[in-house]
Amino acid sequence: xxxxxxxxxxxxxxxxxxxxxxxxxxxxxxxxxxxxxxxxxxxxxxxxxxxxxxxxxxxxxxxxxxxxxxxxxxxxxxxxxxxxxxxxxxxxxxxxxxxxxxxxxxxxxxxxxxxxxxxxxxxxxxxxxxxxxxxxxxxxxxxxxxxxxxxxxxxxxxxxxxxxxxxxxxxxxxxxxxxxxxx
Length: 183
Fold this sequence. Notes:
Belongs to the RimM family. There is one protein chain. This protein is mainly beta. It has two domains: 11-99, RimM (Elongation Factor Tu (Ef-tu), domain 3), CATH 2.40.30.60; 110-177, Roll (SH3 type barrels). Helices cover 7% and strands 42% of the residues. It has a six-stranded antiparallel β-barrel. Strands 10-9-8-7-12-11 form a six-stranded mixed β-sheet, with no helix packed on it. A hairpin with an 8-residue loop joins strand 11 and strand 12.
């Protein structure tokens, strides 16, 4: 794959290369998500050595991908021995958002929820999603509102989240929740 290919604008950071694995050039990736499906469906990854940013990332064709003890082992074209794999150690791993597997309508990628406005059923603004976290039992929306010292932590569960409109070009993009301003 050519170095001349410029990175797409929709790159998502999905992990980093921890080390080489074995002698055949596999790289061991620490994924940043508990469900790193994007690494299994993408035709290639984009790698950049910190402090370089995504806009300097270089594409690498994925030959093989498998899960191993909570990490992902990738075989990359042009990487055939341990030394070549070691040279990539520390690289940030990006996948184009367009290469993520399609989600069904009731599941969401966290990256698609960041930045969405959150309102309650009364139409009151609760702020914007700035992060998500997982407490082991469920995902939690971290919602930041101007003037509040702390983020609101709202469980991302069906009984609380009434609707999610994440269509990029829709002016009604928002998350509607059953949540009060003073909670």
